[in-house]
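Thread: Newbie trying to understand structure tokens

Hi all, I'm a second-year student working on a class project, and my supervisor (Dr. K.) asked me to get a predicted structure for one chain before our next meeting. I've only ever worked with sequences, so writing a 3D structure as a token string is new to me. If someone could post the tokens and maybe explain what I'm looking at, I'd be very grateful. Here's the chain:
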Amino acid sequence: MKKTVLILDDTSDTLGELIKKLSNAQVNVRVCFSPQHALQELEGELPQLLIAAGEFPDMNAYQFAEKAFETKNLPSYVILKSAGDSTQLRMTRHPGIIGIYYRPLKVQKLFDTVMKFLK
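---
Reply by user tm_fold:
Sure, no problem. This is what the structure looks like when written as tokens:
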């Protein structure tokens, strides 16, 4: 069975390289550019993993990750714009947020982690 990853991103260039790597590794990648679109995607077949990055008018990436876990029990990797974000401690204690990364993103490291998770 092909694994699926849902990516929520406010800009396509932030995670573009990761999306290419996952697609080349035969992972089904669904990309959303708004929390509303991502919530609609969660109504269908559930992905195995969520990767959330960005700031949106009504919520940010970690708030969306929390919501995805509360409604669909979906584990997430969250990408923050910088280290030391004021929500970092809260996120590390949240059971649905299984990893936190920072920009500039080390794509290969995140890719390796995602592939290990999907096995």
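A couple of things are worth pointing out once you decode it. Helices lie at 12-24, 35-43, 61-72, 88-93, 107-118. The two ends are 11 Å apart (CA to CA). Feel free to ask follow-ups in this thread.
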